[in-house]
Design brief:
heterodimer, A: mainly alpha, ABC transporter involved in vitamin B12 uptake, BtuC, two-stranded antiparallel sheet, two-stranded antiparallel ribbon, 4 strands, globular, B: alpha/beta, 6-stranded mixed beta sheet, 18 helices, about 35% helix
Chain lengths: ~325, ~500
């Protein structure tokens, strides 16, 4: 490349930084405004809000949701939806209990459940949706119901104690220094996923497939495989969330995942990921999850009934959608 | 000479539903050769191109690469063998950056480490090559429509193809000459090119050889020295062109459609237009120029932002299909499967549909009877009026849409790409239907990307460029060159 060419490229890059900053700013403007406003208000009015302790509490409370939201972000970017994640989460907790009961060591249990989650998700949701082109809504509604039912069948509907496993309790309640393990794992998985999406061939294939499946296919991308793997990933992440929740609560509740997909979807969509596929970021998902956490934390502090949580979440979700529409109109 | 063909197709056949799109087609391309694939809309050019590039698989036939038989089961397979295609429809991922779209086919392994900067660096020479001066990392969807095609071409070049297939790649380009020079340069270095175009001028300009398809078969082949418009046209159409369009000269009557300064969703500038009874006014423009939007706004499918529409002297409310229909406008939409027909419903229901009212009873027998008359009048080939409309061929489906529109005795007929995906025989019948309606005093507003069709049918042609009225040409003034120039943003005066 000649000197002139390099200069031209450098010039383009300078312009790019500004343009990229603007795009990023626009992308998070919806959730950003609300999150900053709430945080500022709570910090100013509540004495104990802006503390490390409280931040740790919020992150711990959101850890399970964050992992599910990470999985859902992959699925939404690829242009789908996975309603079975809740069922998988409950089932994974129950399987953890079952394996622990049978004396499988902690690490073995975790690997089995997570890998098992991937295989089951890829073989059911992935196969039916990616390979056979069935509707993701119907398929994941079906498999989700089946997973949840299996969890109930295995436990006879009873919440099972996991207090006997020291290893699980270390993970569930212990920490790396001041940071609880569940926070480390959830934020770590989010960061790793962000890197995968942005810096690996697979990540870019996910965006391309979700943005325009036919274009991706014409570019030689195996879109069936990409979608298959994404549904495997979402199941594996749901399973991880299930193990983590079971460890954190020291019990396996077969019904623990019942509403989590809706909350996760709210967080992901609030974070600017498009329901239409092809766009979205893990940073947005992080902000969305954080927002839900700050919201519920704040409501508790303000002595407002927790029942308002869903109302405000719903309103903010629709607000984020409107901002998204305005952004789309503006260009 | 035939021995050193890079790509050789033998006996390619493909059927879509009841339409035989290709039957027993042979094609050879040699190293460094530019072969033009010519033919009318619906002659099977694109189908053949897509088969050669592994986008769809043929029902029969063999593709040989360097003399050994291959079967491209996926685009990946074709790309790996050096066959790249620039398709008629844009196949970019709008949310991704321009650079990433260019390097997408090179994204082979899921585990590769990639960065946007690297994408930009890899894509940059190809963007330079096609003359696209844009931020490589800007999102693709921010690019102006006329320049998007350049990204597609850069994408194909980035795969370093041995066989480059350009399927109507020039239709949206403001300056096709630049692309021609590029293709010639590539071919001088040994690349083989298959160029699909309807523009005879481009075939003459570029091709070493032309293969003409008609109704899914090879109608003939012309060597460079034989490439003149007469020969090409005769092979493409297979008959005299004058009679083909059923052109009738008619006294033009009172204005039936008056458009005064309407602003559509797409257009930044107001558009004004008159269509008189017995007149066909054509609307030309590139993809994204606002042709369909103009028709859909008049038909009430889209809201208009200002301006007035009068149909047969009556002012029509904005954004109301019912009001436009009541005033006497009928739209034959661009995409009959998405907008025109209800698949799964019968032929007669599709014809009777506009007569349905929410609180009125239907008379199925009467609807059947009337539909049967239409089927006869429009020569719609179907097993019965109760047949599922989806089982009909493209041309007959289109005639069902026409029959529905005609059944309301419209004052203005709005035709959006009325013969897209219709075989030659059915096209002629559709032209005859249009002529009959015009003879009965209907005014027609015809949007089409098929320039010979516009030139053959229209009394006047309005050319749109990026939603603005770029000019208006009378039938006598109009030529493909002038339309292309206006549509691409040039001025007629600058043509010479």
């Amino acid at each position: 490349m000649s000197d002139g060419a390099v200069g031209k490229l450098a010039e383009r890059h300078a312009g790019r930084a500004a343009a990229a900053a603007k795009r990023v700013a626009l992308q998070y403007v919806g959730v950003g405004i609300v999150l900053i406003a709430i945080t500022a208000y709570l910090s100013a009015t509540q004495t104990n809000f802006a503390t490390w302790d409280n931040a740790r509490i919020i992150l711990s409370q959101q850890a399970v949701l964050m992992i599910v939201a990470v999985g859902l972000t992959f699925v939404l970017i690829v242009g789908g939806l996975d309603l079975s994640m809740g069922g998988m989460l409950g089932l994974a907790g129950v399987i953890t209990w079952e394996l622990t009961k049978r004396g499988v060591p902690v690490w073995g249990t975790i690997v089995l459940v997570v890998v098992g989650g991937f295989v089951v998700g890829a073989a059911t949701n992935g196969f039916l949706i990616a390979k056979l082109n069935l509707s993701f809504l119907v398929v994941t509604l079906g498999t989700g119901g089946a997973f949840a039912a299996l969890a109930l069948i295995i436990t006879q509907g009873q919440t099972q104690s996991l207090l006997s496993s020291r290893g699980l309790q270390t993970i569930g309640s212990g920490g790396l220094g001041a940071l609880p393990w569940i926070v480390v794992v959830s934020v770590g998985l989010l960061a790793l996923s962000a890197l995968v999406l942005r810096y690996t061939g697979f990540g870019r294939m996910v965006y391309a497939t979700g943005g325009n499946q036919e274009a991706a296919r014409l570019a030689g991308i195996d879109v069936v495989l990409v979608r298959l793997v994404v549904y495997g990933l979402s199941s594996a992440l749901a399973a991880t969330a299930g193990v983590l929740e079971a460890a954190h609560l020291a019990s396996a509740n077969p019904q623990s995942g019942q509403t989590i997909v809706l909350d996760a979807a709210a967080a992901v969509l609030i974070g600017g990921t498009s329901f239409m596929g092809g766009s979205g970021t893990m940073l947005g998902t992080f902000l969305g999850v954080l927002f839900l956490g700050v919201l519920s934390n704040g409501l508790t502090r303000l002595d407002i009934s927790a029942y308002w949580n869903g109302f405000v979440t719903g309103a903010v979700l629709i607000f984020a959608l409107l901002v998204d529409r305005l952004r789309f109109r503006a260009r | 000479m035939v021995a050193d063909a890079v790509l050789r197709a033998r006996g390619i056949a493909k059927r879509f539903g009841s339409v035989q799109a290709l039957a027993d087609v042979d094609l050879d391309v040699r190293e460094g050769e530019i072969v033009a694939l010519a033919g009318e809309n619906g002659s099977g050019k694109s189908t053949l191109a897509r088969i050669l590039a592994g986008v769809i698989s043929p029902d029969g036939g063999v593709i040989e690469l360097d003399g050994s038989a291959t079967r491209f089961s996926t685009p990946r397979h074709a790309l790996d063998n050096g066959v790249a295609i620039v398709t008629q429809e844009l196949t970019a991922v709008p949310q991704l950056s321009i650079a990433e779209n260019v390097v997408l086919p090179a994204l082979r392994r899921p585990t590769t480490f990639v960065t946007q900067t690297r994408f930009a660096r890899t894509a940059w020479p190809y963007l330079e090559q096609v003359g696209l001066d844009a931020q490589p990392l800007a999102p693709f969807h921010l690019l102006a429509p006329g320049r998007r095609e350049l990204v597609e071409i850069a994408k194909a070049l980035a795969t370093k193809p041995r066989v480059l297939i350009l399927d109507e790649a020039t239709t949206r380009l403001p300056d096709p000459e630049q692309l021609f020079v590029l293709v010639e340069e590539l071919c001088a270095h040994g690349t083989a090119a298959i160029v699909i175009t309807q523009r005879l001028r481009e075939i003459r300009r570029l091709a070493h050889r032309a293969v003409v398809l008609r109704d899914g078969r090879v109608a003939g082949e012309l060597a460079r020295g034989e490439l003149d418009d007469d020969r090409l046209t005769r092979l493409m159409v297979g008959r005299d062109l004058g009679g083909f369009f059923h052109k009738v000269r008619r006294e033009r009557g009172a204005p039936v459609l008056e458009i005064d300064g309407i602003v559509t969703d797409r257009a930044p500038a107001p558009v004004s237009l008159r269509v008189h009874a017995g007149e066909i006014v054509g609307v030309a423009g590139l993809v994204g120029s606002g042709r369909s939007e103009l028709l859909e706004t008049v038909a009430g499918v889209r809201r208009r932002h200002g301006g007035e529409v009068r149909i047969a002297g009556r002012s029509v409310r904005s954004g109301s299909v019912a009001a436009a229909l009541a005033a006497g406008a009928a739209l034959v939409p661009e995409d009959r499967r998405l907008q025109g027909l209800v698949a799964g419903a019968s032929v007669y229901e599709n014809i009777a549909m506009t007569g349905w009212r929410p609180f009125a009873l239907r008379h199925a027998e009467r609807e059947r009877r009337r539909a049967a008359q239409s089927v006869e009048q429009f020569r719609i080939r179907c097993s019965s009026v109760d047949a599922d409309v989806a089982t009909l061929s493209g041309g007959n489906q289109q005639k069902v849409v026409f029959a529905r529109c005609a059944s309301r005795r419209p004052r203005v007929l709005l035709l959006d790409e009325p013969t897209r995906g219709v075989d030659v025989g059915a096209r002629e019948e559709i032209y005859r239907l249009i002529a009959d309606l015009v003879a009965a005093g209907t005014g027609v507003l015809l949007a089409s990307s098929d320039l010979p069709e516009l030139l053959g049918l229209a009394d006047r042609i309005l050319v749109l460029c990026e939603g603005e009225q770029a000019g208006e040409l009378t039938a006598a003034e109009a030529s493909e060159e002038r339309i292309v120039l206006l549509a691409g943003g040039g001025r007629v005066g600058a043509a010479a």
